[in-house]
Amino acid sequence: MATSTNSGVNWKALAIGTGGVLATAGLIWLVVSGVETGRGERPDAPAGVETFTAINAQHIDGAIDYGTTDPPPGGNHNTQWHACGFYDNEIRTENAVHSMEHGVVWITYRAGLSDDETSILESLGRRSETIVSLFPGQSAPVIATAWGNQLKLQSATDDRLDQFHGAFRDAPSAPEPLASCANGIVT
């Protein structure tokens, strides 16, 4: 009498499916934990970073008073995020804050920077998950801001600007890292 060893389970399909799920989970873990392909671990935050905690993150229509002359390090924001890129004008703070919720680094500057500094900022504005815009009246010539973190700089040539970007772009400290700024508005 022959016995059947086939229990109706397609073991090959189960193995492939499980492998796919594990590979996807591993990739997500690597990105969220800060390991970037080809670059190693996420750099440490540079000296001088100010950290903010207990930040609200509600979606609100209309203008929001952030009560500061500098870019806010997070907070309530507009329902629509802002598109990444370099802007030689002001953008709506409420939309940029929403982008930061997605893990975007927002680099702001005052008018009057040298051509070399402006070129550096334009280059940074071409990086993924980065917004660079004019922010008149801010307390430092260049300010790098990511959700809950901010670094004030006297020049765009300061190496800490690039280090800040590497430490906080798509960082797990953002409420929705990796959500992107694709299809954001342009003001």
Task: Please provide a written account of the structure.
With 187 residues, the chain is an alpha/beta fold. The protein folds into 2 domains: 11-41; 50-63 and 70-168, Glutaredoxin. It has 4 helices and 6 strands; from the N terminus they run αββαβαβββα. It has a 6-stranded mixed sheet with strand order 1-6-5-3-4-2, sandwiched between helices. The protein starts with 10 loop residues before the first helix and ends in a 19-residue tail after the last helix.
The overall strand count is 6
Structural class estimated from helices and strands:
alpha/beta
Query: What does the overall shape look like?
Result: globular
> Which sequence of SSEs, written as H and E, runs from N to C?
HEEHEHEEEH
Biggest sheet record: 6 strands, mixed
Rounded Rg: 21 Å
The span between the termini is 78 Å
Task: Name the CATH architecture of the largest domain.
Answer: 3-Layer(aba) Sandwich
Keywords, please?
Glutaredoxin, alpha/beta, 4 helices, 187 residues
Short description, anyone?
The protein has 187 residues and is α/β, with parallel strands linked by helices. The chain folds into 2 domains: 11-41; 50-63 and 70-168, Glutaredoxin (3-Layer(aba) Sandwich). The chain has helices at residues 11-33, 93-101, 115-125, 160-168; strands at residues 50-51, 85-86, 105-109, 130-134, 142-146, 149-153.
